[in-house]
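User: Hello, can you help with two protein structures?

Assistant: Certainly.
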Amino acid sequence: MTAILGISAFYHDSAAALVVDGEIVAAAQEERFTRKKHDPGFPVQAIAYCLEEAGIDASRLDYVAFYDKPFTKFDRLLETYLAYAPAGLRSFSLAMPLWLKEKLHLRRIVRTHLKGCRAPLLFMDHHESHAASAFFPSPFDEAAILTLDGVGEWSTTTYGAGTGNRLQLTHHVSFPHSLGLLYSAFTYYCGFKVNSGEYKLMGLAPYGRPDYADAIRTHLIDVKKDGSFWLNMDYLNYCQGLTMTGPRFHALFGGVPRVPELPIEQRHMDLAASIQQVTEDVILRMACHVHDQTKMTQLVLAGGVALNCVANGRVLREGPFDNLWIQPAAGDAGGALGAALFVWHQLLEQPRVVSGHDRQHGSLLGPRFSSERVAAFLAELGHTTRRWADESKLLNHVVDQLEAGRIIGWFQDRMEFGPRALGARSILGDPRSPRTQSTMNLRIKFRESFRPFAPAVLSEHAHEWFDLDSRHESPYMLLVTPVAEVRRVPLSKADEHTMSTDPDLRRRVNIMRSTVPAITHLDYSARVQTVDRLRNPRFHALLEAFYRRTDCPLVVNTSFNVRGEPIVCSLDDAYRCFLATEMDLLVLGDYVLDKEDVGQSMNAGKREEHLAQFQLD
């Protein structure tokens, strides 16, 4: 047996992944255990979980693989500060203690936390870790590879190809020229948090017009025919400062950055639409060039920018590739998995068997809880419950509740690896109800009203409801595609006026655009998750039950958390989230808790204890 532990840490979304004899046994982000969103710390608890899942301790590890090369990254940091000196002194003084005390001493940290481990510690190239996470678990024997993120050691974008059990990256774009950091600059400027708010900017884009796209192309980015690019750093501040943008950026786009929580203006919506359009155009141009150079018909993607599912949808629809596969944990977390797989296939030269399905196991790679654990947990809280041993009766009961307009907390099987809830740690609702969107955003998620929700749809019916070819799938919710024309509802003159002029985003988003309004965004798009029986049999069975009852093969699926919190991991996390929101039903495995019954059956002291621990950001 060969056990390889992959680790990513110290920047954002630290994680651990364990590969045993080439099989992905476990993977999880540290944030799910510590409850600190995007936790960058060394993934102590995630590592402990991975070892427990495999039934081994650290002494049984054969290799430990870290997802990048700290000394090379440190070299880039020093060169950058030197190039901009004396500017950047404050940033330098804040960064150096972290590097000198922690980031440069990874060997010591690993030995401290992995007691008894004598395995060699290997350091991967950051973008090779991304590439390995995309290619090696993919369903393709050969594929072109494109990785895009903020920055690794020096590279910000790379491409190459993989065949069999080997990959090679042949071209790259170097720091400070970074599509990811440019997108993050607009994220920061529009008042969202860098490295976590980029998806908010993407969701805001359909509310605006790309009026600033030409200004971005003229002043900020010079894009070449092959998709490579150069950024004008006179407008950006991330090399030497503590902010992303500088005075020339602010003058170009009409003022200082928006303060978080202040109203979003039409200007911010237009800026979001503009940088989204530019980003999509650059990625599409890159994809076309990579296809031209590699002559391959499949494409795999990874890196934080690969989470831009709107751009991914355009690449699939408009690009030259027959198919694409995106690593579900495309950001830094996935680097832990890529590092472990790179050691197994590339360094140890172990063969890779392609079966037509990906090897990610539905990305359900996190902790699970048995029915016995659930029963003991509920008994401790003082709840009188019964187990729904008959799955069909359980699913029909949940469908009854969905039809009644109730919101369901759905906690099943193993937790997802990556940023998306895929039917294991999900909140579900009826997509046909025009009230579901506002109820979920304001009463359950406590988040911005403009944010869209995603549909989980039976894979065999996806092409009937969305502009998605029946040959293609989107099992990891990483493609945005238009809602099918036949499902759309014509807008009245009054609705068209509201859509284009109303400053209240809640009124805009609540206009009925299709027969499934809860998942249809302003531009008739949806971030689709196709659900099949192989990857997630119980979730597939629930959708089948809903379809039989309603003739609608999809439900609203959003992550089981509230704003500012990571997706729930444990039974306790799920229960506290259930209590602190206006969620109606909590389904823990085979057990169902109804909010109407909870107050009568539970221990009052325990309820207060749980609520006191639950804090919103």
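That covers the first. Now for the second protein you mentioned:
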Amino acid sequence: MKRLLLLMISLTAVLSTVNAGAVEYPDWQGFPPMYTIQDMVEFNGTLFCACKGGLFRYNPQTREYTLYYKNHGLLSNDILAVAATLNYLYLGFTNAGLVRFDPVTEQYEQILFPEYTANRNKINVTKIFAMNDSVLYIGHSKGVDKINVYTKELRTFSKLGKYISENSPVSDVKVIKGKIYVCTEFGLAVADESNPDLEFYGNWKNYTYGSSRFNCIERVVDEYDDTIWIGTTGDGILFFNEDINAIQPSGITSGNFYSITKAFDTPCAASNNGLYKKFIRSWYSYDATYLGLKSIVFGSDGNLWVGTSQAGLKCYTSDGYTEIPSVGGPRNSTFYNFYLSDNDNVLWTTTSRKGENYDALVLRYDNVIWTEYREEEGILHTTVDITGDNNGNYWLPSWGKGLYVMTDIGIPDKSTVHVEKVDPAGDIIKYTIGKNFIVCSDLVKDKYGNIWVANHQAQETNSGAVVFDGYPFTKHQTYSPDEDGIASAEIMCMDADNDGWIWLGTYQSGLTGVYVGDDPFDKFDTYTVNLNLDNGLLGMLITTINHDLYGDIWVGTKGGLNRIKKLPDKRLKVEDLSTLLEGGSVEVTSIEVDKYDNKWIGTSVGGLFKIDAKNEAAGHYTTQNSGLFSDMILSLKYDNTHDVLWVGTDTGLNKFYALGTTPEKSDTEIHVFPNPFEIWGTNSFVTFTNLKLMSNIRIYSFNGELVDELVADQSGNSGSAYTLWYGKNFKDETVGSGIYFFTGITTNGRLFKDKMAVIRR
């Protein structure tokens, strides 16, 4: 059955094409992880790599990289597949569909599948096979699509045979010698490409090999064989024997293989254990310099280009790997904790939580330079946080190996990195499991410069929160359930406010407030309050804590947002403020307070919220209306010096200029102010200047609907025209908050397109 393919051009339905080189969200800067390569292709002598952080181009001649990611207009950062035709590239995304990209003009067209866009869960495009500029085979999370871009024809194959489950995810699709080969986790599906009835499972043949999961398939012709090779998970390399119509093993019967190609006149394969090569009729491990290989392409320059899962792009010549420039930027995609040093305004961040990321590291960012601190420098991969003390030390708690302190006076060349373990004998920081596992889950610096450490300790009750006066320390004190009545030693997060309170968020026992006064090393005036569901907490698992400029405590839980107000006689009042997060019981993951007393609230699925100094909802940022890489926010840090909010997500790092950009004015752009435009009443207005006299300016909603049309009929002192907009639509109704786009003609006759934010009070 043939269905219509809707071709839609995307710039929020306003413009006909998107220029990927033009920043779509100028207030947002991005640092995507381009080291995780998921697919790649050569186009006109340059390499294009599909990454978890977007797309990059590498030119071997100039040795230069060009990055494309969501802040430049792409649909998403997570690109799973890329394929080249004579004139275009096709990009496949996670939950964002398919895009046709013109590498010359850097413009793209979004291609939408009507049967999927109506569903909440969109497809993941996992592999693209381009027969030519018009006909594509798209492997995705629910089967295979055959589309003709020019005739707008779509055929969907979700029933790939009786032995493969309907709507099975596809890992690779190829057309080889007139047959369609589809790799799935259940086996291989094969059909005649010319068959008009491939929507029916009876027209597909299935082939399996034990319980192998098939990842990739490729035909390679060399001087010995003309063979269809198959890469699997766990069972090495197989091949399809066309003579007996069966799948058979090769000499490699173990390992995970993701890409096969012909290079140096013989088949080569990319695996988790490195590069493999075939010699005559046998495969063997050829080079294990880099592990975790995901994709290989034999370039027109005679080199084998290798895409890795963690080390970016590599070049393999006939003599072995050769040096190429690093793609730059952060290596990891997750950013769990931030520290902004007071003296030099340098950002530090960690990329692990609970020791779950075994390639985690500590990163330092200073003036576009990234510095990595790894196990080579003595940094554990289980490091979960970083905080600097008043003596120039950096404290590093780990999930499993205890607490460490790092000094580095040779920054950024790492020549003098020195790491020491705090309390190596385990007398202060207690063991969690036996003698080999010590969990320090969080730390915070109080107003006196003391360092508080959460000694997350589940088996005993004589540990909890430990405070040190510095390093080397001369004083320390422990606050525990046994001695001080805290609810639990399973502490997940902490905060130290300016009124002498230490706040402890536990794993499943609610929130504890410990009043320690001016001297936390003397317990004479210690006072403990435990808060739980009966007191109004929205959840017993506390995820984050921070205090505002007026001393109120903001608490994030699995169930929403609480605020703790301090009353006389050390009494506490718990308030439910989840209504400020659009009324949802969303999981709060991070809370940051800026110098204006704005509260920035990160959530697990709902993006970023802003609550102003009046404690009113003042903004909501998601991947749909901002340059956010992901709606899963892991960490936040506000730079009060530059009014920049750092946003750590699960797919990259964002830098948000929270007060807006101040671009250099020129006669090539329309100037709009104020931006954001806050509508307080009937007399609020925004001004558009640098317009051509009597030209039109059109304002569109985020969904592409024309909201209002104005005429630049007023002349300014500079000779350019201007016009005012009072935030009304054609019906004279005040518009709602959101992102709006506008187009107009500048004084030099240039068509200009941009966006503005509207906040309706």
